[in-house]
Design brief:
Blueprint (H helix, E strand, L loop, with lengths): L1 E8 L2 E8 L1 H18 L12 H7 L1 H24 L3 E11 L6 E9 L12 E6 L4 H13 L3 E4 L9 E10 L2 E2 H4 L4 H4 E8 L21 E7 L13 E15 L5 H6 L5 H34 L7 H21 L4 H6 L1 H29 L5 H14 L4 H10 L2 H20 L2 E6 L4
Parallel strand pairs: 5-12
Antiparallel strand pairs: 1-2, 2-4, 3-4, 6-11, 7-8, 7-9, 7-11, 10-11
Length: 437
C-alpha cells in the first residue's frame, strides 16, 4: 500500500491511497466465494452454483462489497500508519477501481488540531472569603414567607407595595402599541392585570404614577421606554396607557413562626432556619467552586491558540443555537422575535462554540498527558444516577443512551469533570476578601 498526505488547510488533509492489484484480486476472490456459498440459482443446490454464473448474476453486488471492504480497511490502515486522528467522516473519492488493477482513492479528512500544551499547573484563581450570615438566613426566610402572601382587597388609595388590579390600553405615537411592535400584544391591552406597585415594576415610572388612585378611578400614565427595553421597536420611545383601576389589594405576609416552618416540612422555626442555612452554605460552595473553575478555564484558554476543525465548530454552533432558542422560548420570547434576532443568535453561538470546542481539545490532551481515564463502572454509576433522577428504568435508560450515542457523551462528560478537578487541585488559588456590594 502506498500512502501520501497533503495538507490542504489547518486541520484538513488529503490522504491518497494506492492498493496493489494483487490485494484487489484477492479481495474479489474472497467475496466471490462468500456469494457462491450462499447463492441460490435455478437448477443448483444452494452453494453449488458455478463461479462464473454467480459472478454474472451478482457482479454489481460483488463489486460494491469489494470496494466497500477494500476502501474501508485500507483507509483505516492508512490512518494508523500515518498516526492521523480524524474528526468526523471522510469525503472519499474513488479514482481507480477494477479487477486486475491497483485501487486508487483519495480521502479529504479533518484532523484534530496539533498544538503544544501550555503549563496547566499552578493556574491562578481568586476565591472570595464568604460565609452565610444570620442576615442572609433571615432574608431567605422572608422570601419563603413571601410565597404564602395573601392579597386582601382594601377600600383605600393605592400605596407603594400594594397590588392594583387594572384594565389598560397602551399606545405609542397615538397608535396601538402593536402597530409599532407587532409582538407586544400584552402591552397593547390587558384585562384584570395584577400590577405590582413597586419601583421599576412593569415599566419604569409606571407604578409611581398609580399612587393615590383608588378602585373606580381612571388614569392616564405616561412612560419612557428604556433604551434597553426588551422589545427593541419600543426602545427610547414614549408610551401612553389609559388605565382603569378595578381593585386595590394589600399584601399580607404570614407570621414567621412554627406554622410557617411546618408548611415547608420543618418541625419548627429553628429547624427551618437550620435547613435554610445549610442550603445557603451549599449554594455558596457551589458558587465559589464555579467561579474558581471559570477563572482556571479562562487562564488555560488564554495560554494557547490553535486552529479548530471547521466541522466540529459547525456542529457545536448548531447545538449552541438550539440551546439559545430553547431558553428564549422557555422565557416566553415570541417566535417572531427570535427569528428577527437569528443573525445575532448565530454570531453569539459561533463564538461560544469555538470556546467549547477549543476547551474540549485541551481537556482531551491533558487527560492523555496525565493518564486520566474513565472506567465502565463510573459510567454505569452516572447512568444509574441519571435514570433515578428522570425516574426511568435503568435498562431502558441505557438502551436509549446507546441508540443516540449517549454512552460516549457520558464518558466525555466524566473525563471533562475529572480533568477540571485535577486542574483545580493543582491551581494556585488565592483567598481574597469578598467584594463589597
Amino acid at each position: 500500500m502506498n500512502i501520501t498526505v497533503e495538507n490542504l488547510a489547518p486541520c484538513k488533509k488529503l490522504l491518497r491511497v494506492e492498493v496493489d492489484a494483487k490485494s484487489v484480486d484477492e479481495t474479489f476472490d474472497a467475496i466471490t466465494k462468500d456469494f457462491q456459498k450462499q447463492a441460490a440459482l435455478p437448477g443448483f443446490r444452494p452453494g453449488k452454483a458455478p463461479r462464473d454464473m454467480v459472478v454474472k448474476k451478482y457482479d454489481a453486488e460483488i463489486k460494491e462489497e469489494a470496494k466497500r471492504k477494500l476502501i474501508g480497511e485500507n483507509y483505516r490502515k492508512a490512518l494508523e500508519d500515518k498516526k492521523i486522528s480524524v474528526i468526523g467522516y471522510p469525503d472519499i473519492e474513488e479514482i481507480q477501481f477494477a479487477r486486475g488493477q491497483n485501487l486508487q482513492f483519495a480521502a479529504t479528512i479533518e484532523t484534530a488540531p496539533e498544538f503544544q500544551l501550555p503549563d496547566y499547573k499552578n493556574l491562578p484563581a481568586k476565591k472570595e472569603i464568604k460565609s452565610v450570615t444570620d442576615e442572609d438566613v433571615e432574608r431567605a426566610i422572608k422570601l419563603l414567607a413571601g410565597q404564602h402572601t395573601k392579597f386582601e382587597t382594601v377600600a383605600r388609595e393605592i400605596k407603594m407595595g400594594d397590588i392594583a388590579v387594572v384594565n389598560y390600553n397602551g399606545t405609542c405615537d397615538g397608535k396601538p402599541i402593536t402597530e409599532t411592535a407587532p409582538t407586544a400584544k400584552g402591552l397593547t391591552e390587558k384585562k384584570n392585570f395584577w400590577l405590582d406597585i413597586e419601583p421599576n415594576a412593569f415599566i419604569a415610572g409606571f407604578a409611581e404614577q398609580m399612587l393615590g388612585a383608588k378602585a373606580g378611578d381612571k388614569k392616564t400614565i405616561n412612560v419612557d421606554f428604556p433604551a434597553d427595553f426588551v422589545t427593541k421597536e419600543l426602545q427610547g420611545k414614549k408610551g401612553v396607557f389609559e388605565v382603569e383601576i378595578l381593585e386595590v389589594k394589600e399584601k399580607v405576609l404570614p407570621a414567621i413562626d412554627d406554622e410557617l416552618a411546618k408548611k415547608y416540612g420543618a418541625e419548627n422555626l429553628e429547624k427551618l432556619r437550620a435547613g435554610v442555612r445549610t442550603d445557603l452554605e451549599n449554594e455558596l460552595k457551589y458558587s465559589q467552586a464555579k467561579s474558581v473553575r471559570g477563572q482556571i478555564i479562562k487562564s488555560l484558554m488564554e495560554r494557547v491558540n490553535f486552529d479548530l476543525p471547521e466541522s466540529a465548530v459547525a456542529h457545536e454552533t448548531k447545538n449552541v443555537v438550539y440551546d439559545i432558542v430553547r431558553e428564549n422560548s422557555q422565557r416566553g420570547v415570541a417566535r417572531e422575535e427570535i427569528e428577527k434576532q437569528k443573525d445575532q443568535i448565530y454570531s453569539v453561538a459561533a463564538s461560544g462554540a469555538k470556546e467549547r470546542v477549543k476547551l474540549a481539545f485541551l481537556i482531551q490532551k491533558i487527560a492523555e498527558q496525565e493518564k486520566i481515564s474513565v472506567t465502565q463502572e463510573e459510567v454505569l454509576q452516572r447512568a444509574q444516577a441519571m435514570a433515578q433522577m428522570y425516574q426511568i428504568p435503568l435498562d431502558k435508560f441505557i438502551k436509549d443512551l446507546q441508540k443516540r450515542g449517549g454512552v460516549h457523551e457520558l464518558y466525555d462528560q466524566i473525563a471533562h469533570e475529572k480533568v477540571l478537578a485535577f486542574l483545580e487541585q493543582n491551581a494556585k488559588i488565592e483567598e481574597v476578601p469578598a467584594a463589597a456590594k
